[in-house]
Structures are given as C-alpha cells and as structure tokens.
Amino acid sequence: MRRPNTNTLIEIAQIRNLQRLASETRALRAAAELHMKNAALEAHERERTAIEQSWQESLRIMSPEITVLWSLDLQRQEGRVRGAESDAKAAEEDVGRRTLETHIATARHDMAHSLARRARRGDLERRDEIALQSALDRHIAKGREE
Fold it and tell me: What are the φ and ψ backbone dihedral angles of 15, each rounded to 5 degrees?
C-alpha cells in the first residue's frame, strides 16, 4: 500500500480545520436563530396573555359584540403562538443537528491532524535514520582508509 505524502496529510488536516470552523459557525448561527425564535415565542405568549386578560375583563363590563371581537383577536394570537412554538422547535432541532455536525467535523479534523503529525514524525525518523546511516558509512570508510 502506498504511503500518503506528509504534505498532503497536512493539507487535509488544514481543510478539516476549515470544515470544523465552518461547522462551528453554522452551529452558532443556528443557536442565535433559536434565541430569536424563543424571544418571538415569549413575545407572542405575553401578547396572548394580555389579550386573554382584556377579553376576560370585557366579559364583565362590555357588550357582547366587543367580547366577540376580543375572542377573535385571542384566536388569531393563539395561532401566532402556535406558529412561534413550531418555529422555536424547528430552530432547536436545527441547533441539535448543527451541534452534531460540529462534533463530527471536529473528530474528522482531529483524526486528520493526528495522521499528519504521525506522518511528519515518521518522516523525521526516516531522515534521522538516513543521517545516522550516512555518518556510520563515513566512519566505516574512514576506518578502512587508515
């Protein structure tokens, strides 16, 4: 089996590092999106609660026509809350997916970096062996000359 070139392994490790960084960036963006979706959900829930309270108060003091309008507004807001809940859940799933991708990219980077480091160490050992053999050959040749 042919040994890969050390420089190629180093380049692969650098590419894996870029992939890891890109994955981390996507995960951070997904987390920011989740934060925004959760904030929107909380705002819609607060608005729904306020409408609900107004509707309940209107039942006591206002005409039936006004209470119907409050009820319709409450139903619309309930739909917005359900939509925001769905968006927040999708964003949370995206964060989980992006986090998994980041872990995979990190593992691939670490593996490529380890292979490159071992190949480089092997190259250095072979170079040292060649240098030692060359020094030994010179020493033997010098001994023969004497």
Answer: -65, -45
For the chain, what are the domain ranges? 6-145
Report which DSSP code applies to 4: P
Burial 107-132 (b: 16+ CB within 10 A, else e): ebbeebbebbeebeeeeeeeeeeeee
Report residue 37 as tokens. Answer: 């979706």
Please give the CATH number for the structural domain made up of 6-145: 1.10.287.1700
Residues whose CB is less than 8 angstroms from the CB of residue 143 and which lie 6 or more positions away in sequence, other chains included: none
CB 50, CB 38: distance < 8 Å: no
Secondary structure class of 63 (helix, strand, coil): coil
Report CA Rg, the chain. Answer: 33
Q: Mean pLDDT per 10-residue run, the chain (146 residues)?
A: 76 89 91 91 89 76 73 85 91 92 91 88 88 86 76
The SS3 assignment for 5 reads coil
Q: Which residue has the tokens 């981390």?
A: 24
Q: How far apart are CA 98 and CA 118, in angstroms?
A: 30
Give the residue ranges of DSSP H helices in the chain.
6-61, 64-145
